[in-house]
Amino acid sequence: MPGRAWIGISGYDYKPWRGRFYPDELPARRWLEYASRKFDSVELNGTFYSLKSPAVFERWASEVPDDFVFAVKGGRFITHNLKLRNAESSLGNFFASGVLALGAKTGPFLWQLPGTYRFDAERMDAFMAMLPRTAREAESVALWHDERLRRGALVEAPADVPFRHAFEVRHPSYFHDEFYAILRAHGYAFVVADTAGKFPYAEEVTADFVYVRLHGSQVLYASGYTDAELDAWAGKIRAWQHGGADVYVYFDNDAKVHAPFDAERLGARVGTRDSGLGTRNG
């Protein structure tokens, strides 16, 4: 059975998008609502920079349609400061910060590692083993939280849903079979990341889903995608789908407001949207 595709944007709260993607008269508090009618998924990247609160996640969930999903970027304190070691309480803080409020709107979790961090098989395997595979497992992880959660903790999930995890790596030492084998053993995805050649590239499928981040093909975060490039990505997505994988694609080339329009154009090619008008096709 073919997989499903979700195509959206990495983040939605960008002031330069006002008057270009977001209507001038639309208040910023309604930007997520607007974006969620254009796309069926958004990658939450604010969760990378700081812990949010249950009230924030509850608001996010309330503003989007029932069949919308959020990808959630893991905290940089875990990935960049701790470099995945001694992360129990920090993982507890992350999952207790309100993530569980997303319920059935929970998409994959993105764990992005810094480009300076070399592959360490034992460290990667141990961290992956700690990650919850369901919302019920996440309830247990959330109980590891500490006093750093100053705006409340949510340790009960409204629904038990499966959790997916994906890893975006940038150091060349990860691009080999040993790392791919660890991902496969845990059922986690290797992130296919187009970074304008700044970091290594591979298209390894290691799970029942594929996670794609499009940062720009020519200039990191700033260049748009040509029709030919989007045609090529549409072909890759269809091939992964026909192979049975679900596919999540997020455009991160936001600097010059290319991301939302490229996402609409790719969505029209793949069939997740009808020419960017925001109408769901099923």
TrEMBL record:
Signal peptide: none annotated. It comes from Gemmatirosa kalamazoonensis. This is DUF72 domain-containing protein. SUPFAM superfamilies: TM1631-like. It comes from the Bacteria. Pfam families: DUF72.
